[in-house]
Amino acid sequence: GTTLLRLMFQNHPNIAIPYESHFITKYHSQLTEYGDLNDDVNLRKLIDDILNEDLILKWDHSFSSETILLSIKTRTIDNVFRAIYDDYRKGKKKARWGDKSDYLDRLHIIQEMFPDAVFIHIIRDGRDVASSVLKQPWGPKDIIQAAEWWAQHVILGRRMGAMLEPTKYTEVKFEDLVSDTENQLRRLCNFIGEEFSEEMLD
After folding, report:
1. At what angle do helices 40-51 and 77-91 cross, to 10 degrees?
2. Cα angle vertex 105, ends 101, 106, to 5°?
3. Is the pTM higher than 0.85?
4. Distance (Å, rounded) from C-alpha 126 to C-alpha 179?
5. What is the pLDDT along the chain (202 residues), one digit of tens a residue?
6. Residues 195, 12: contact at Cβ < 8 Å?
């Protein structure tokens, strides 16, 4: 479901959303290991480590660590990520960027790093999710564990979302996105402050 929604938004003329990250909060929590980012050596090491993440190597974009480094005015972890995502969106000739990742238990960290962020929580029928995650090497071992895993994640996401302002968090059911695509996309575009584009339906 997250992949489908990402591709729909990626087709919007103003929005660029790359392949998932999942590593933003990792670097936020490990930042002290890099020392003072005003030191070029430290900042370059941080940028290089991020750009060599397995997941970022799957993005449909080529990065230059030097270009990223030179584009960062204030040397903070959030600005490092802004520079990386800005480089991606510029490559796609888009006005804004987004991210497709499961940060349900870390929404507060993402919100702290990116105060203007808005969150869309896509929820799929638990039976389909359980069937899917059982096939994953990292997934639960049986249907009961899979059902509990799904329930815990949905509850967690909703509780974290409830801590945000209503203008910052919304939900969409996967089944509604599939059966009532245009209306759901119009609603989600309105939520993020963009006009709906027919191209999203492609």
Report:
1. 50
2. 70
3. yes
4. 17
5. 899 999 999 999 999 999 999 999 999 999 999 999 999 999 999 999 999 999 999 999 999 999 999 999 999 999 999 999 999 999 999 999 999 998 988 999 999 999 999 999 999 999 998 888 888 888 788 999 999 989 999 999 999 999 999 999 999 999 999 999 999 999 999 999 999 999 999 9
6. no
